[in-house]
Amino acid sequence: MTQEEFLTIFDQYRPMVYALALSYTRSPQDAEDVCQTAFLRLLERPPAQGKEKAWLAQVTVNECRSLLRAPWRKRRVELEEGALENLSFEQRSEGALWTALGSLPPDQRALIHLRYYEGFTVAELAGQYRVPASVISARLYRAKKQLKKQLEGSDHGSISRNV
Known about the structure:
Layout: H1 3-25, H2 28-44, H3 52-69, H4 96-103, H5 106-117, H6 122-129, H7 133-153, H8 157-162
Helix pairs in contact: 1-2, 1-3, 1-5, 2-3, 5-7, 6-7
């Protein structure tokens, strides 16, 4: 892969990789680390041409999982909600939805993000996760049901009607 090809892919998919990592880890610093690692892997082992988006999404999810399983992670203090106020990330401005998404398990957050923010189809997600499409549909259904429950419990009923 030439430098020009890499820079083109980097410019095109960096926001997606960072947003997915931030959605999964809920930490800007961890999201930056995951983003950097994903693009380093792209340099080491580039995917087939035209498959970059799916490949980067899968690598990002795998890196986030590895990061969250790390033993040092258990000894960390989580960020307070106020620490996320300065982010330019578009989900942050959605307040109640951001909080409700944060209450979901990381795997469900990643699925919601990939499906509704990045536009992956259920079939594409099934291929990435190596499970039948019905399993992805069921996981998305459970995640949306949990999101709706969280949003109905808050004062933001209008958002929950859109979920």
